[in-house]
Fold this sequence. Notes:
The first copy, chain A, contains 21 helices and seven strands. Chain A is of the alpha+beta class. In chain A, strand 4, helix 13 (293-307) and strand 5 (313-316) form a beta-alpha-beta unit. In chain A, helix 2 packs antiparallel against helix 3 (61-76). The longest helix of chain A has 21 residues, at 373-393. Chains A, B, C, D: Residues 184-444 form the Malonyl-CoA decarboxylase C-terminal domain.
Amino acid sequence: xxxxxxxxxxxxxxxxxxxxxxxxxxxxxGETLSFAPDLPDDDLERLRKQMLACLEGKGGEVSARARAAxxxxxxxxxxxxxxxxxxxxxxxxxxxxxxxGGATQALLAAGDDDQxxxxxxxxxxxxxxxxxARLLTQFNALPEGVKFxxxxxxxxxxxxxxxxxxxxxxxxxxxxxxxWFDVGFLELQRITWRSPACVLEKIMxxxxxxxxxxxxxxxxxxxxxxxxxxxxxxxxxxxxxxFVEVALVRGIxxxxxxxxxxxxxxGNPDEADTAIFYxxxxxxxxxDGISFGNFLxxxxxxxxxxxxPRLKNxxxxxPLPGFRPWLVEKLAEGEAGLLLPAEHRTLTQLSNGxxxxxxxxxxxxxxxxxNDPMIAxxxxxxxxxxxxxxxxxEKRTGQGRALDxxxxxxxxxxxxxxxxxxxxxxxxxxxxxxxxLMINYLYKLDEIETNHESYSGTGKVAVSSDIRGLLKV
Amino acid sequence: xxxxxxxxxxxxxxxxxxxxxxxxxxxxxGETLSFAPDLPDDDLERLRKQMLACLEGKGGEVSARARAAxxxxxxxxxxxxxxxxxxxxxxxxxxxxxxxGGATQALLAAGDDDQxxxxxxxxxxxxxxxxxARLLTQFNALPEGVKFxxxxxxxxxxxxxxxxxxxxxxxxxxxxxxxWFDVGFLELQRITWRSPACVLEKIMxxxxxxxxxxxxxxxxxxxxxxxxxxxxxxxxxxxxxxFVEVALVRGIxxxxxxxxxxxxxxGNPDEADTAIFYxxxxxxxxxDGISFGNFLxxxxxxxxxxxxPRLKNxxxxxPLPGFRPWLVEKLAEGEAGLLLPAEHRTLTQLSNGxxxxxxxxxxxxxxxxxNDPMIAxxxxxxxxxxxxxxxxxEKRTGQGRALDxxxxxxxxxxxxxxxxxxxxxxxxxxxxxxxxLMINYLYKLDEIETNHESYSGTGKVAVSSDIRGLLKV
Amino acid sequence: xxxxxxxxxxxxxxxxxxxxxxxxxxxxxGETLSFAPDLPDDDLERLRKQMLACLEGKGGEVSARARAAxxxxxxxxxxxxxxxxxxxxxxxxxxxxxxxGGATQALLAAGDDDQxxxxxxxxxxxxxxxxxARLLTQFNALPEGVKFxxxxxxxxxxxxxxxxxxxxxxxxxxxxxxxWFDVGFLELQRITWRSPACVLEKIMxxxxxxxxxxxxxxxxxxxxxxxxxxxxxxxxxxxxxxFVEVALVRGIxxxxxxxxxxxxxxGNPDEADTAIFYxxxxxxxxxDGISFGNFLxxxxxxxxxxxxPRLKNxxxxxPLPGFRPWLVEKLAEGEAGLLLPAEHRTLTQLSNGxxxxxxxxxxxxxxxxxNDPMIAxxxxxxxxxxxxxxxxxEKRTGQGRALDxxxxxxxxxxxxxxxxxxxxxxxxxxxxxxxxLMINYLYKLDEIETNHESYSGTGKVAVSSDIRGLLKV
Amino acid sequence: xxxxxxxxxxxxxxxxxxxxxxxxxxxxxGETLSFAPDLPDDDLERLRKQMLACLEGKGGEVSARARAAxxxxxxxxxxxxxxxxxxxxxxxxxxxxxxxGGATQALLAAGDDDQxxxxxxxxxxxxxxxxxARLLTQFNALPEGVKFxxxxxxxxxxxxxxxxxxxxxxxxxxxxxxxWFDVGFLELQRITWRSPACVLEKIMxxxxxxxxxxxxxxxxxxxxxxxxxxxxxxxxxxxxxxFVEVALVRGIxxxxxxxxxxxxxxGNPDEADTAIFYxxxxxxxxxDGISFGNFLxxxxxxxxxxxxPRLKNxxxxxPLPGFRPWLVEKLAEGEAGLLLPAEHRTLTQLSNGxxxxxxxxxxxxxxxxxNDPMIAxxxxxxxxxxxxxxxxxEKRTGQGRALDxxxxxxxxxxxxxxxxxxxxxxxxxxxxxxxxLMINYLYKLDEIETNHESYSGTGKVAVSSDIRGLLKV
Lengths: 473, 473, 473, 473
């Protein structure tokens, strides 16, 4: 028996509806609902009917969408607990178990008959599609429907842990967003001081690598020797998805304070030979796991190459956010094997003479050492070497993947580890995460594919000869 | 065992790849392939490898997309047979049967354990996702990637009949397009004489209801007492998806020749009380079954209400494209029951006196009767009555759905059958399809939901009292 | 003898050029000049040749404009003294005295012969056109040429005082700008939080009535119950020319602190019945005397009426910037006639009891009285009455024009004096200029023309009945 | 006595007004006037009052502009005779003769006193400004005010001949338009198949060099190996002012039929080395004498050089519109000196043998000779030589200016005469004007200034060595 999909969907939903009481048909598009913030059981019942009306497309799809928008507005007015109950209720509109069972049997029965199998597979996939997927899509009728769903996912990810139902709902939402945010739909925009204030305000809020101190600092980062590019979705035109900040300089920059100094003279971008990507930020938590960072970098490289034909290096200036935590862990196992004998000696002498706390461990725990030139000089060689080892050789347990998350991002994009920079970020955060070191990942256009293949295939990390030297010690 | 989705996908593809010989890894992004138009077997083998390289994301996703774009360009250079072979090859990258089997077993084993069931359902859905879905998405990297996929589906629908593999591929593509063409992403644009010539050219090509005779005719349809609205997708900015042509008039218009007459005086739209939707066209065959006509009509009603607060009627002037074919079929069964005795008498007399061919059947077969005022007057009452019956009461076999496709569209949008217009379209097409009749469907804002519910629930058709009168005879 | 204008212009310039030495013809378009900042005489000589090359259109008009642009860039690099010398040199390219003399004689000779007179007038006008007018126009070739000329005029106005040559140059420039900034060319734009940051930055810099405290304050002034409109010129797209800030409220607002309070709740603009224009600013000094304030107000009234049909009052909340200076002057002549006897008595008692400084004069000199509720209450009636008199009756010596500049602006636009507001602006500036008072000018659409005519014809000031009451005391 | 300009203007106008009867003050902004199409004297009287009300700024400048707009609408409804009367009436609001007389005397009195002279000159210029200038400006308040004035000038130029008053009005309008249409305000736009249909429609209407046959022909001229650029004014955004059509080809094109052939294959613009400017059209008669053709050409050269770095030649393919008329005139004086003896002989023989009409004169009168290969071949050398002489050596009587208008345009832009092309335009128009010849003017960037200077200074025409060869015969 063939049956139109729409009708069977309604049938399934009606089946589910038996679980609840009478289904009122009075809901009108655009109407105002009003639930208590915590969604007590009575409200839950009314909400159920509303959701059902959306799923059944009561009054036609246009009305159903209007009704879904009303539900979305309601969601926004709820408390945290109310929202959790709302989402669990919604997640209850899952696949019809009986129908899935039937389709499974049909697939088993199909055996080796190709035609029968293909058709059974299709039927099974349809049966497995949860009705709530339709409701999620309908929320797109909200004035900022796409942003609503992105933010919904951000909340859902927090709530879903350990809750199989919400996990399934979250997975569905991720798949929906992944389709909608296909990189082919994104628009690369240059952000300048001419951009709308409401967009700039968000750039300031979302910058997490090197916090922006205010409108003056932002304006400095948009000066003629800087570039800031972001991806946007056509239906979230004022919400950057991901953005990268670039400095156009001569030679590969090694110190972020100099780059961000508002009093530094403005360079002539037409004379620059190097583009430094000094900050990349994902702006939407709700798009976690839907990746477009590599597309952004490559589009920006293209764009810059076109505008400035003299550019010959494209490199990052990046933190090593996991370096100090890793070193602390290693040191807990003992300093042996981390320092060369001579280094160990010098360090011991220094600590005696200068009141330093006697060990690498003590120094690393103490954020102040960078201010003592002699200690800093003594630590330079061993920490740089250890950083090289950390970035290029340490892997996540059981995987070929680099332990450092920033390293993993750039290496899987096909970059190579080019240079380590000593005392390159001595901010509190820079000391706490990276012990003041920063790293340049270099994007060499003719190496990118090979580097990517080696790294993603065998975990092999591409490094410059300098870094290779450090790794041999 | 947990395993990253990406890796397992590659594993599956590699499994499939065993079917073929050595997989060269040399494919580079953006490279030029070159296959013979008919894709002989040798080319097929190279093509297989190319597709595999895309699916494996060789050289990273950016490169994989560039490679997919090269494949897409290649597809366009192929002959019809070459394209069929291309698509069948692609459709071969379907779900891994063994994995589907395993997941099916896991679901059966889950039994009543909710948690286990949810997780098994998720795994099964993933297993059922065909790898070619990824390749389809990658085609979005083509400069006009979305349009490419829309056109691809149009072709695929033709080829897929009776071919289960291609049918599955076509279904996947439809689902992808349905997600991308969610109505929330579409932009309503008014088309005017200020619109780009390249868009107007397409409007002319896509108008199928009342063909546009040239740029002059088009300009007339864009005059100040006319409106033309279209939906666009942000990634197909020069391709109307669906469009509607509206005349702003006084009173409900009943004759399309008068509406389209380029010599008619231009009305004052601010004095109009009625908006006549006289032509609605789906412009993209590749979006068949992904419906936004009802959204278009309701958006346009909103838009017009805002611009012209005096408008009080929103009605169509539509053909009855299946009326004559239906009547011919009925007449083949005999004229009895179609004509009243008096009508039958008059007709017989007329034919005797005037040389007409003696029966309703003969007249209906003859396109010329409209030119004979006496015959036309004689036919007026019976044909109008039969048209009312056809539109309001005839259903598709075994369904609640109106037999006439245009009627079904407007009725399921919540319109009502308002008025039948005699000799309203005497063009060759109008006579051949609708025996010269046209119909007004009326969109009354406060009835739309109820009408829709009645029609979609029980098949009940809303009609005006005039039409009700005709149905009682 | 008739002669083409272009040729004769060159001839005249060549005549002038005899004053200087050899005229080098080597100047190339776009070349870099380089003068010492103070323009010593040697540089002056080279500059003369450059200007001459522009005036002669050497190498064609395209090249001449490029050369003028180089001159403009040079001007910008000069010191104040250098710029003065530059402009005086330029002003030397005035009309050819001999030619003017000849044309004058021709006009005298024409006598009553209409034809001869018209032709002589035309010839005389042409003779009176200074060649430097052409050079001014050529500066338009600079990338921001219009802004350059606007700023040039701002500088020139300062230098021209007492210098007849520079005065003539300044007058020419004003006429040029008046033609270019014809109100028909200006674009009304609404400024919102979506506007480019570079424009918002200028709004902050140019607001002189109620200074904007920072980006937060600005955002508050752009909230949904506020409006900010500006006029722009198509060739200065990022430079507001004049802007007005509007609050949408219920009832005519009387206190600017409440209006600007960032913590006040946001009103619903759709429920507002009154638009309060609380700040109007001319942003370009170089456009002084080229007036579009009245056009701005009337355009904004139209715009707001369209968007918010419920608005029924359009009023300002304005300072009386000359009130205190005027009162101080009056008090210097003696308090008699300013206070009623009873008021004088109360004030004397108060000052005795409270340590106030014994007289209205002393109080007015003392910015602090507003903090003493009893004194403030005592001053309320007399100061309000005197303010009414000041605004409605005091005129510039020998003219029908209101003494207060803000009053003159609104009265000549056709507004009426509606209401005086006590302690409405107690900022330092508000006390110093307006003794804390603010005034509402009301724009009643059906009175505007009559009010304008009365005021501009006879100096009669339209007032409300409240104000009329105050004037009778 | 100093007096505000505005007041004195009103005083002057009031003086003029004495000529007419009572001046009604009731005119309101935006009101509807209604004059008979021919403007009989009664209407003239009412019109006079309306104009006066505008000039006096009755009810404020905003109202005055609205009133002027009403006048403008009225003008458009008048007959040709009505318009002439309207304009003559308007031209009557000229300078106040008495005031001009006084200012003239003041200037004579100033003598050698620089300060007095400058101030007297300024006063005289002000006195000479006609009040109607203000009215012209006020028409800018019409919705398409700038276009109105441009078209007004086109009409005025026709009427003004022999009418000193209208000539003065026309001169004033030209000066106003010259200020408004300063080249710095114009926008260069590329016209493509994506341009608004309403703009393309005008391009088709305005193309006068090689008429466009329809939308298909136009589309062909906008193909990927073609460019069409136009200047626009920001207040006439849908009205091209001047436009140029360019073909991107290999080698300097010599035949316009090949260039315009819609069946010719589309070239690859990236491989082109030559840009051929094959048609330049002024689109607005009302801007005659306000020249921006040279700016257009140079901007387009810049634009093309940027987009296609391989381009090395920029040349026109132009007609010689005055060649045949000139030759006919010369032949009327006798053939001697035009043909070489050998040429004369061959021609005579040919005519005997072939029935040709015996002389160059007869052939030139006969449009058909191009179809006879032998005659055509015989004429090739002498006509080409005579064309070279015509273009490079024939001057307007008593001037250094080339006789051919197209030649004059390109030569004064700095181009050189590069090549003559035989049978390059054999259309009826091409034969009638240019005897089938076309010419390439070459713009060599490093010669432009020198060529311009030589030509505009001494009338010397730059030619290629080929042309020089032809001139030596």
